[in-house]
């Protein structure tokens, strides 16, 4: 690596606030943006970022912010990871595009091999097969499409509190029509939404919650009309909801008995974030199809649809693909991410982060009764805030804490359909010192609120 590149990427891993946040340069760019970018493309924190490395982003005013959002779980391996940057740069200088469905290239095949090696259920004798696309929503779209082709059935089952994207089909699958779908109708049809498992609120065991989900789907859809059930093993936008033990296995079993394709949407929870390569490994389920995106290519756009060969092979030649799907530069970056899983002990790092972060958050929970629960796995953690003594969501408090944190150089994001939670999606490079610093800022935020 040249010295110029090194000095550009090595940013001290410290929080540093030198102006108001957003600062004057950010505010100036924001004014220009208002003239040419529509408000529907909303930025939660209009602080314009110039550089980033590991767990720190530097804005155009020179503030160093601790990134506990990671572009919503995309920079899992850290911002501008050296191996990812080197691999993408090398590929950029070789070939940037040919179109895999015209004249293919090897990095695509290597990503498919890595996915086949890691997805639960895939074996060396019967490896799962992969289609690569560009975004999480495209992964969901194609997962549904492939399941429909395989089963010959139309129905798509989803869960309450789910989030699957912002295309027509996926925005119709989300729990929150507001803001994702309303006004953009007609929405896609044949989507059936069933109650999820939300232990803090429903008090049900996994098998009880699964029985409720299944009864609802059998009544509202009819099992034999369902092509697939799409579930986030740990719900992301819905509030980092970890289902009760036994919930997912019971759903998977019901799918198997009824010929319904079980699709795990691992777009947010996958790729080492939760301490296993895929979060569903922790629930003992082997999905028929696994969807990946967000963290898979260290910040470059790439998405995978990885499924049992029998299901994937059902689509006719030409039925699957897209101009940019599995772009060579994104694939080279993803290969580097897979190589770094072991080289940088990323699964162990996720567990380190979980231990340090949850210890700090649980200390805050003892002090502040508004924190109803600390939950999540690995580097996918959240607190749910309520009016003390009730389980009523306190979105105002969530907003206040996040606002205080961002003004003090910590990037946080809410979660949950009622904005009842604050989510923590640190990169796996975040040091213990930075985690402690984030907890200190949170403590001050709760004290101020
Ligand atoms: C973000 C997300 C998506 C959509 O991904 P995009 O890349 O934004 O299209 C789908 N599913 C889950 C679980 C997500 O978190």
Automatic annotation (TrEMBL):
Top-rank lineage group of the source organism: Bacteria
Leader peptide range in chain numbering: none
Classification via InterPro entries: Aminotrans_3, Aminotrans_3_PPA_site, Class-III_PLP-dep_AT, PyrdxlP-dep_Trfase, PyrdxlP-dep_Trfase_major, PyrdxlP-dep_Trfase_small
The keyword Transferase belongs to this UniProt entry's keyword annotation: yes
Gene3D superfamilies: Aspartate Aminotransferase, domain 1 (3.90.1150.10), Type I PLP-dependent aspartate aminotransferase-like (Major domain) (3.40.640.10)
GO molecular function, one term: pyridoxal phosphate binding
PROSITE patterns: AA_TRANSFER_CLASS_3
Keyword tRNA-binding: no
Cofactors demanded by this protein: pyridoxal 5'-phosphate
Enzyme class: transferase
EC number: 2.6.1.19, 2.6.1.22
Keywords: Aminotransferase, Pyridoxal phosphate, Transferase
Pathway: Amino-acid degradation; 4-aminobutanoate degradation
Catalysed reactions listed for this entry: (S)-3-amino-2-methylpropanoate + 2-oxoglutarate = 2-methyl-3-oxopropanoate + L-glutamate; 4-aminobutanoate + 2-oxoglutarate = succinate semialdehyde + L-glutamate
Any Pfam family: Aminotran_3
Family: Belongs to the class-III pyridoxal-phosphate-dependent aminotransferase family.
Designated name of the protein: (S)-3-amino-2-methylpropionate transaminase
Organism: Leucobacter triazinivorans
